[in-house]
Design a protein that fits this description.
Blueprint lengths: L1 E6 L5 H12 L3 E6 L10 H9 L13 H6 L2 E4 L2 H10 L7 E3 H5 L1 H23 L4 H16 L11 H26 L1
């Protein structure tokens, strides 16, 4: 499978995800940035965290291109803004663009399905004059928070611990991603 990770400048989060994924799988993996320059090395924080984890990184930044988008079977962004920008810019590729968290996390899809059902339930409760409306609205607020929290934190400019936390967050979702992708390929 060809997987493309996308962030803003392609020096922190997406190269970190690319390096971890290459270290743990045999999938074809690349990364790019929406506003990336060409040929920048990964940030010092990214390189240091990966070095501490025993993961090699030989990275040169690159911008998102039509060719990369076509190459990828799956495009995983670090934020909802990245996702939405790519969907607007590359409408032919919408079906393969997700945030890393929303694609990898099985709870996201479940929360989305529950939210659609809750909206329907709310409309029917309002029509019936049901006293459960407030409880349903509370459930909707909770589910909306679940599906809106899909960004990987940006460590840019932070200290080593900031990069370490981002590494742990990415590694956690990549473990879920690997499991999901491997199950689909079986």
């Amino acid at each position: 499978m060809n997987i493309l990770f996308v962030c803003t400048g392609n020096t922190c989060r997406s190269p970190m995800a690319e390096a971890i994924m290459k270290h743990k799988t045999t999938h074809n993996v690349q990364s790019a940035g929406i506003f990336a320059g060409i040929g920048m090395i990964a940030s010092e924080g990214t390189r240091e965290v990966l070095r501490q984890e025993g993961i090699d990184v030989d990275h040169a930044s690159q911008p998102v291109t039509v060719e990369l988008m076509s190459w990828a079977d799956l495009i995983l962004t670090m934020t909802a803004q990245h996702r939405d920008f790519l969907k607007q810019s590359y409408p032919d590729d919408i079906a393969k663009i997700f945030t890393l968290k929303e694609f990898a996390n099985p709870e996201y899809e479940q929360a989305w399905q529950e939210l659609k059902a809750a909206y329907s339930e709310l409309e029917q409760a309002k029509l019936r004059g049901d006293k459960q409306v407030t409880l349903i609205e509370d459930k909707i607020r909770h589910l909306e928070q679940t599906i809106q929290h899909v960004d990987i934190s940006d460590p840019f400019g932070g200290n080593y611990m900031t990069y370490q936390k981002t590494y742990e967050e990415i590694e956690n979702y990549l473990a879920l991603l690997i499991e999901k992708v491997e199950n689909r390929l079986r």
